[in-house]
Design a protein that fits this description.
With about 170 residues, the chain is an alpha+beta fold. Helices cover about 20% and strands about 30% of the residues. Helix 3 crosses helix 4.
Amino acid sequence: MKNMDILRILPFEGLNTIKLGMTQAEIAAILGPPVDVHWEDCMAYDDINYTISFRNDRAWEICVNNYSLSDRYRVMLHDVDLFGDKAEDVIRKLERFTPCTYEGDADKDLANEYTFPAWKIRFWRERAYHPKLMQDPEFIELISMHEENLEYELQFWHFESVVVYDDTIGL
């Protein structure tokens, strides 16, 4: 494995030096100005793909997306590689510390969103892939239509984003 920088998710705190409760000016002093404004209180920063939501000028939600990170950074929580490990492995490893809830499917392995309420951390992926889908006739039909369909579906075996939040900030 090549040497990569590590971004650490810190429950109740944030991501590395970016902390929940910081002002937009404090975050801009670390990351530079936002590269995109999604809406008035949600801004995207630098090439790491931070998306930070503000309430009353205080960061209450920090999201990091996997879109351009996987070849440069490892995003870690309790020594678990959040984007490098498969989604079900991430959840299983972190559930040793605290329980999680999930949404998006009755089958836990096929859920889209997982939340660790005690840590106020949420994981998301647009769709879910798990090898058990290879037993589903509809899924088999989908991937048999085009050779690249399976490769496309395999990307959903990993999370696309992780969010650390504090929904009491800025209220």
